[in-house]
Amino acid sequence: MKTLYFFIAQLVLSFAIFSCSKNNSNTGPSSLKAKFMATTTVTAQQNSSTPRSVSDSVVIASLDIKSYNAKTGEIVFDKQPVFEDKWENYRLKLNMYKNDTLLFRLTLAISIYSFLFNEPVIYYSFDEGNAAKWYILDGYPWGEPINSNNGNSLQKDSGGERAASVKEIQSAWNVFINELKREGKYIE
Description:
By secondary structure, this protein is α+β, with helices and mostly antiparallel strands. Helices cover 28% and strands 35% of the residues. The protein contains 4 helices and 9 strands. A 9-stranded mixed sheet has the order 2-1-5-6-7-8-4-3-9. A hairpin with a 4-residue loop joins strand 3 (65-69) and strand 4.
């Protein structure tokens, strides 16, 4: 009788282990990673009389993506990155990776900037009393989510620079979107 109970217990345990391993196969760690990079450029004087520029980049925030909304362009991270004084002192870019392969870079744009970006940006929206939000847009200002059907910002893109910049990252963007869909983090 003890042997029968032991056999049943082993069978149930084996089934439970098999079920857990099967269910966890699609819920492993995300292959997408977002890394905010701070870049400083300094001019160095070499032995010759010609100065040269030297850039140094450092990762200041490494984030996982919780979701991306295709209609609004809003991207939600697992945590809010903290930059301290790096807004003014550094050029910030968001590098988007799949596994360890760089897909594309986004330039940081915030509402206090008074200049134009005709390239894909990560836009930081912070209103008094509201939670900060992040958006991936085709440019700044008047940005639209990449591949949106509105076309408003591209109409303001008289030189076609935004359209050309989006076209440059289109294949990597498609990899990004397909991976978000596969991981269940894409909102239409």
